[in-house]
Amino acid sequence: MTETGRKTLLVVDDDPDMRGYVRRAVSRLCPFVGEVREASTGHQALEMVRRGGIELLITDVQLPGLDGISLCRQLDSSTGGRPCPVLLISGESSRTSDAFEFAASGPHRAFLSKPFNAHQISTALAALEESAERR
Length: 135
Hints:
Blueprint: E1 7-12, H1 16-29, E2 33-39, H2 42-51, E3 56-60, H3 68-78, E4 86-90, H4 93-104, E5 109-113, H5 118-134
Parallel strand pairs: 1-2, 1-3, 3-4, 4-5
Helix pairs in contact: 1-5, 2-3
């Protein structure tokens, strides 16, 4: 958490344009997010989360190497019962059902299918933040 009590978000996507779009949307519409960090691979994201300070995560499902669902599973097993709230995003229709099922299997997960708009990101993150605050 930042000094202002706002959360630190990690955006994971191999597309720099998508990371930039999400960063701008969150900066504009999510007052509870103070800092947005970026990773382009699942392995890079895993290392960043393990170092600490990441409180919310948005990850693409289709990533090179370690995909978004595998990333979340590894994080779940290493967080000692306090999973990081995750918004999974996917534009790959073959992975949509996997991502949706995975998101539905945990209380601190959500899913958005690409294309989405800034308000959908904001609404999904706000719901995840509210859920995390209640635990």
